[in-house]
Amino acid sequence: MGSFQLDDFAAGWIGGAASVIVGHPLDTVKTRLQAGVNYGNTLSCIRTVYRRESVFGFFKGMSFPLASIAVYNSVVFGVFSNTQRFLSQHHARESEARGSHSLSDLLLASMVAGVVSVGLGAPVDLIKIRLQMQTQPFQEGNLGLKPRTVALGVQPVYQGPVHCIATIVRTEGLAGMYRGVGAMLLRDVPGYCLYFIPYVFLNDWITPEACTGPSPCAVWLAGGLAGAISWGTATPMDVVKSRLQADGVYLNKYKGILDCISQSYRKEGLKVFFRGITVNTVRGFPMSAAMFLGYELSLQALRGDHTVTSP
């Protein structure tokens, strides 16, 4: 079997689309809690969004992630799977005595996937967060700072994903599309290590030795738990990333990662870095369960292998 396989990319695309549809409403709540003001706790935020914007408010900004995160996820899963397969084959040639999964191979493959994901995902995340945050009332978000532009009124800054991209490039340059990229690297490189590694080992642990592969139930459970672990531990840096990326809709408050951490800690204390941890962890389970289930089932269909679908 060759080391490079395209079907991992195709299956990742399907898994990514499934995860966006399942997870976007809670992602909107998470973003509002982390980067907005006057939302209180998770339930209060849900009630506020629903009261102000109806159920459609939870799906604000979903069209761009649905179109782009599927591609992004395709690359992440394709890079991880092919890197891990390449490393496994390389080590298998060096030594006959090795386990079914090498922790070092999984760690390196996860880190490579994390770095690649940031290059593709930073602009996607930025557009999503800007669209999610622009309905935050300007008077509430102002916090006594001078607005970047005048006479904004109640007109939304961005009319949609394409207009958002054009506006950011025009006002902030191409580098503006990568606002918060440093915080995203610090979130995603360790985040993907705590995503793929628990998934692989939980799958191995849940699946009986007699089975040729994991059942859909095992994939769903292992994927969901891996997502909850990864998103829960990534919350502090996710808060910083969200604030840096939301910064600039109406005004600019932060000079960089350290300035954002310093200002946030000084104004709101240590607890601010765990804002949204509940919704992050809860959202991580169904999103990742859908992601891995979509990926594994698609991979089986593409390869014509249905043996792992039996419990």
TrEMBL record:
It holds the Pfam family Mito_carr. Keywords: Membrane, Mitochondrion, Mitochondrion inner membrane, Repeat, Transmembrane, Transmembrane helix, Transport. It comes from Zalophus californianus. This is Solute carrier family 25 member 48. It is found in: Mitochondrion inner membrane. GO terms for molecular function: transmembrane transporter activity. It is a multi-pass membrane protein. Solcar repeats lie at residues 3-86, 101-205, 214-301. GO terms for cellular component: mitochondrial inner membrane. Belongs to the mitochondrial carrier (TC 2.A.29) family. The keyword Glycosyltransferase does not apply.
